[in-house]
């Protein structure tokens, strides 16, 4: 789940101050997510690995391009990963067009520059709607209505730990529905 | 936004293998931007600011417009390299560029500004960073308590490094502000010794400004990460230390970063809470930037 803003600020301060152990911690926390995101878009493990590495190196090289006042570090890294992945897919398409000729190769629908493209967003919404009632309820409260764990627990009259584990089960079900990591 | 957060949380839940090698990543990253120089703990606040300025210099493009003191970014970076080189010379570390013509900050600054003028920004950045790294490489052998006087200022070696930290920090902030970049603060454990150094300078600023206050004393409470509470006798033969309930003529309280910047000559809009002798507080505020040079 998303780390609190204060962690983002501290990691950012440390990376700006040239502390490479902070980059290592960032990698431990987000590498799987960033790799998974790049893999979903590119459908190529080797390319996805290169993109994931480039995302972290970019943050290290120009850490002042990130501003913690304007959003979470995770979302910022995900946006770069998505943009790089889309760039890669587009370059591949152009290459195929030039090899096969424009009439033979039909390019897929245009990809968007947001992390969550419109068609993928529809699939996420559908997957949430298809969750079993109890899980759907907690996911909708936590994400569509922006409730904290504690608020979710309070509204449903269940312990906070139960709310937390139910949300995680919901996320795992969604991950299965979306096809998991493997393209 | 909420759907995007859900999507990222879902992906994080789905992926548990991390295929990218951590060692490969760190090697690639540090080859593109050097990490903070490896130094003894007492010099870490300076090493952190060197890395922060390097990060800023890697993201700005306007090197030829005047930022502060009538200097462009290129001239400002040459000025920092000049001050670093005088300290390097006092410690027996290599001095890069033209030989030092005189043990004076402004003389050396002009030498290096002339030297850098015809060069590309990237070369100036590398020159400054190489000099900072050469200085840092010498520090493991240096005695932090030895008093030396580069540029005619006698301080212990550890305090010279804190002075270099403060100046590098302030000029990085000058350049960041000019370029519309928000510079995050140093970590608390780097701010604290710098604030302590600034607190110890306060009696000297009063002396240099001609205020007769040697018999008086201040309680200084600095708030925010890296802050603390100091008892400062305004007598230069005594030393500011952690506050332990002493009775003082005035108690002052303000943000720790604001206080460091005040001593560094960036006191615009600065204010502190005053309890006690308001006249003494006013003199302290007037005197505070007395040791800040360009």
TrEMBL record, chain A:
GO biological process: DNA-templated transcription initiation
UniProt xrefs under InterPro entries: RNA_pol_sigma-70-like, RNA_pol_sigma-70_dom, RNA_pol_sigma70_r2, RNA_pol_sigma70_r4, RNA_pol_sigma_r2, RNA_pol_sigma_r3/r4-like, WH-like_DNA-bd_sf
Domain RNA polymerase sigma-70 region: 26-94, 128-175
Alphabetized UniProt keyword annotations: DNA-binding, Sigma factor, Transcription, Transcription regulation
GO molecular function: DNA binding; sigma factor activity
Family note: Belongs to the sigma-70 factor family. ECF subfamily.
Protein name: RNA polymerase sigma factor
Species assigned in the record: Acrocarpospora corrugata
Lineage: Bacteria, Bacillati, Actinomycetota, Actinomycetes, Streptosporangiales
UniProtKB/TrEMBL annotation, chain B:
Stretches that traverse the bilayer: none
Domain of life the protein comes from: Bacteria
Domain Mycothiol-dependent maleylpyruvate isomerase metal-binding: 52-176
Family matches, as InterPro entries: DinB/YfiT-like, MDMPI_metal-binding
Gene3D superfamilies named in the record: dinb family like domain (1.20.120.450)
Pfam families for this protein: MDMPI_N
An example molecular function term from Gene Ontology annotations: metal ion binding
Protein name: Mycothiol-dependent maleylpyruvate isomerase metal-binding domain-containing protein
């Amino acid at each position: 789940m998303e780390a609190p803003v204060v962690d983002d600020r501290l990691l950012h301060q440390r990376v700006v101050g040239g502390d490479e152990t902070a980059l290592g911690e960032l990698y431990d926390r987000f590498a799987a997510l960033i790799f998974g995101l790049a893999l979903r878009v590119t459908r190529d493990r080797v390319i996805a690995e290169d993109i994931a590495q480039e995302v972290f190196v970019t943050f290290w090289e120009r850490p002042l391009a990130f501003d913690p006042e304007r959003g979470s570090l995770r979302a910022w890294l995900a946006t770069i990963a998505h943009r790089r992945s889309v760039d890669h897919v587009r370059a591949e398409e152009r290459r195929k067009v030039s090899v096969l000729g424009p009439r033979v190769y039909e390019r897929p629908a245009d990809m968007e520059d947001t992390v969550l493209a419109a068609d993928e967003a529809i699939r996420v919404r559908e997957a949430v709607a298809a969750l079993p009632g109890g899980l759907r309820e907690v996911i909708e409260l936590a994400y569509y209505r922006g409730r904290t764990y504690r608020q979710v627990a309070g509204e449903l009259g269940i312990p906070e730990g139960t709310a937390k584990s139910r949300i995680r089960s919901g996320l795992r079900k969604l991950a299965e529905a979306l096809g998991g990591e493997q393209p | 936004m909420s759907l995007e957060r859900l999507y990222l949380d879902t992906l994080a839940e789905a992926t548990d293998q991390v295929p990218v090698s951590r060692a490969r990543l760190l090697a690639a990253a540090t080859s593109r931007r050097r990490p903070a120089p490896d130094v003894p703990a007492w010099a870490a606040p300076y090493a952190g600011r060197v890395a922060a300025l390097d990060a800023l210099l890697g993201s700005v493009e306007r090197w030829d417009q005047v930022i502060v003191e009538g200097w462009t970014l290129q001239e400002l970076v040459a000025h920092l390299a000049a001050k670093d080189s005088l300290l390097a010379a006092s410690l027996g570390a290599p001095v890069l560029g033209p030989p030092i013509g005189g043990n004076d900050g402004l003389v050396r600054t002009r030498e290096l500004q002339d030297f850098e003028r015809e060069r590309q920004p990237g070369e100036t950045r590398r020159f400054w960073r190489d000099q900072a790294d050469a200085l840092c490489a010498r520090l493991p052998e240096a005695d932090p308590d030895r008093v030396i006087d580069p540029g005619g200022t006698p301080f212990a070696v550890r305090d010279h490094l804190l002075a270099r930290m403060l100046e590098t920090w302030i000029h990085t902030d000058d350049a960041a502000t000019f370029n519309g970049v928000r510079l995050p603060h140093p970590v608390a454990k780097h701010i604290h010794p710098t604030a302590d150094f600034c607190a110890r300078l306060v009696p000297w600023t009063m002396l240099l400004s001609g205020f007769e206050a040697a018999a008086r004393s201040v309680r200084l409470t600095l708030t925010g990460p890296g802050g603390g509470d100091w008892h400062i006798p305004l007598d230069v033969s005594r030393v500011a230390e952690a506050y332990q309930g002493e009775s003082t003529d005035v108690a002052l309280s303000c943000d720790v970063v604001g206080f460091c910047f005040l001593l560094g000559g960036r006191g615009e809009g600065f204010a502190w809470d005053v309890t006690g002798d308001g006249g003494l507080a006013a003199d302290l505020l007037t005197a505070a930037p007395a040791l800040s040079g360009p």
